[in-house]
């Protein structure tokens, strides 16, 4: 059972990496969504088959073919990593778009609120402390401003809730960003996200390929051991006879 664990792990890693890569490539080329998915799936399968075949036939394969296969495997790993980068970075961009739109709407409402409060302050100052001096027109204007302020507050509440939820979502990556980058840098969060994505793609597909090679190697040793064991067993039986 232990001999098949590396295989299962390698195939799981390759499958997940392939999925992220294919979806990421399809997002990079949205005009050819279905063809890109088909192409990416076939390339991922071809990469795994090529790795296994080249491992078992390394000594019997001529140097030109070997070189091409190695280059193809490295390039395919690069394509997979590029697709994963596109997939993960798109997820971050979508979060930023939601956060940005929410922030712009909040800033617009806050600016309106600021202007209305200034207007209200002016009207109250104009009316003075004596309620009898407040004209009907001024009183109506004050009521309208207060109603508008109430409406703005009602609109702000759900936006503030969304803003707090978004802050909670980006909180972990923000802590990571503060470790490696200066908080005063406007792009410190984006730089941290790129760093995390690069670390992920450096170990994702390469680890899957190396695990596949290791699994093939383990299986080869196991087969050789079983073959030697059977040969020794047959020799002992023959000598006993």
What does this molecule look like?
This protein is mostly helical. It is 88% helix and 0% strand. Helix 3 runs antiparallel to helix 5.
Brief rundown of the structure:
The chain has 241 residues and is mainly alpha-helical. Helix content is 88%, strand content 0%.
| DSSP summary: helix tally | 5
Rounded Rg? 32 Å
Number of strands: 0
Shape: rod-shaped
Largest sheet: none
Portion of residues within helices: over 70%
Based on secondary structure, the structural category is mainly alpha
Query: How far is it from the N-terminal to the C-terminal residue, by CA?
Result: 35 Å
Order of helices and strands: HHHHH
Flag low-confidence runs. Answer: none
Proportion of beta-strand residues:
under 5%
pLDDT average, as an integer? Answer: 77
Task: Quickly list its features.
about 240 residues; 5 helices; about 90% helix
Secondary structure layout:
Layout: H1 5-28, H2 33-56, H3 63-127, H4 136-180, H5 188-240
Helix pairs in contact: 1-2, 1-3, 1-5, 2-3, 2-5, 3-4, 3-5, 4-5
